[in-house]
Amino acid sequence: METRRTKQQQSIREVLAEAGRPMSVQEVFDAALTSVPTIGLSTVYRTIRRLAEQGEIAAVAVPGQPDRYELADVAATHHHHFHCTECDRVFDVRGCVGGLDRMLPPGFKLRGHELTLSGVCGGCAAR
Ligand SMILES: [Zn+2]
Ligand SMILES: [Zn+2]
Question: For residue 88, which ligand has an atom nearest its CA?
Fold first, then answer.
């Protein structure tokens, strides 16, 4: 039997899968309303927190911005993000610059990196 909680988690996973880009709690809420018109913002907050604790979704940090969230299997593949400063949406970008260890002082070892590009997305640039 499917509980209400399971259904809420399922619809939020679907919203993120359909969007194909990291979303803020508010964006998930707006999108979830179309399939679950009775859902509340606090429920979306709680459900996202629970999914993150369960390791099903991952937080995407954007400097000076509220966290966005993406599915864990998307997060597991190395990629980077683009923040549009016009519409505030965050997109996945493929590929990686590489060679960042050349920036390190002698003797340092690179273990990882996060990169957030910013600018104007295609939709906003066309307006
Ligand atoms: Zn934009
Ligand atoms: Zn990279």
Answer: 1
